[in-house]
Amino acid sequence: MKIGVIKEIEFGERRVALIPDVASRLVKSGLEILIESHAGESSFFANSAYAEVGANIIDDKTALINESDILLKVGAPREEEVSMFKSGQIIIGFLNPLGRPELIRRLAHQGVTAMGMEMIPRSSRAQSMDALSSQASIAGYKAVLIAAAALPKYLPMLTTAAGTIPPAKVVVLGAGVAGLQAIATARRLGAQVEAYDIRPAVREEVQSLGAKFIDVTLEEDTTAAGGYAKEISEAAKQHAQTVLAKHIKDADIVITTAQVPGRKAPVMVTDSMIAQMKRGSIIVDMAGEQGGNCEGTIAGKDVICHGATIIAPINLPASMPIHASQKYAKNLLNLLNHLIKKGELHLDFTDDIISSTCITHAGEILNQRVKDALSQLAVSA
Ligand code: NAD
């Protein structure tokens, strides 16, 4: 069986789907690995490193795609790449199925079996394949470094001959995978950290990292299937904002990570809250690409608002391409080991990992939420 890796061509994408160490393991298990020439360049993995472990370096992308049984990618393919895919081929990557349902329809028409890494179930059994988590953890870490670098202050408490400096106050909104890593990173840098999540179940995790959990008691169920957050009512939003406003006012750094899958991110930090913040404060809005958790956020831009700066980085994992690619490639290796037994592909649709991850197969769209998103598009067209 041949596994192909094409070079990512989206602007700013520096990750690669396979790193040489993982390619080596796949070669040892009897698979043939084809790497598009310079696919690993932006993540500092040279052609020679892949060649040394027995991968074949291919210059011609069309030939590589043609020969591969399974294609591995990081991000969704471009239109011109999709037209090169052949029927029966498997493509695995972050395909953004709910954000780009038309792409999924295209892949189905092309006869491709598309597997979305964002659809891997968030279960213990699938944990080693959970690329959303492996990448979110990197993003949470990097968000704090960005905030610390932009803050015109120290983060830790310092006792010096020139006086004592109190620790910076960091508020993290949303304590999922990214938020928890942001809390841990801010604590390692010596900041005083408070965090809030709509799901009260995360309180203990927040506290175990040495942060204070901000108590906003909501009188409604806030947890949806799979442990994800639900959209909350207007009244509950108002109440949460009143409580949070007091904490945000005192913060030097606010990191926002709140998302609701398939929907626009909830606005948690309003313009009037920002107006109350200290001048020079920093907000890193990690939900910028989903519309932002903060009023005034512009994805990919730094916006100065009432003397505070809102930073909304795009694709943070790509800014640490070595470890992001390493973790992603490991997630893919574990998925491939699940799919391929003794060199043969086993697409067992009774297995929940495979049935959740597979979005298209044999010309059909399998995922109901993608079908709903397409019907919605047809209605609004
Ligand atoms: P996410 O990126 O979807 O959202 C980030 C956080 O924002 C979440 O904790 C969410 O509750 C919170 N949030 C959403 N709306 C909010 C609002 N209005 N106010 C405050 N907070 C809000 O989350 P994620 O990190 O992908 O995690 C999603 C779920 O998956 C969690 O339950 C997590 O524990 C679970 N998970 C399970 C596993 C596993 O079992 N292997 C692995 C990773 C994540």
TrEMBL record:
SMART domains cross-referenced by the UniProt entry: AlaDh_PNT_C, AlaDh_PNT_N
Domain Alanine dehydrogenase/pyridine nucleotide transhydrogenase N-terminal: 4-139
Molecular function (Gene Ontology), one example: oxidoreductase activity
Keyword presence, Manganese: no
Catalytic activity line of the entry: NAD(+) + NADPH + H(+)(in) = NADH + NADP(+) + H(+)(out)
Keywords of this entry: NAD, NADP, Nucleotide-binding, Oxidoreductase, Translocase
Keyword NAD (UniProt): yes
EC number annotated for this UniProt entry: 7.1.1.1
InterPro entries hit by this protein: Ala_DH/PNT_CS2 (IPR008143), AlaDH/PNT_N (IPR007886), AlaDH/PNT_NAD(H)-bd (IPR007698), NAD(P)-bd_dom_sf (IPR036291)
PROSITE patterns assigned to the protein according to its UniProt record, in alphabetical order: ALADH_PNT_2
Enzyme class, broadest EC rank: translocase
Family listed: Belongs to the AlaDH/PNT family.
Function as written in the Swiss-Prot or TrEMBL entry: The transhydrogenation between NADH and NADP is coupled to respiration and ATP hydrolysis and functions as a proton pump across the membrane.
Protein name in UniProt: proton-translocating NAD(P)(+) transhydrogenase
Organism: Pseudanabaena mucicola FACHB-723
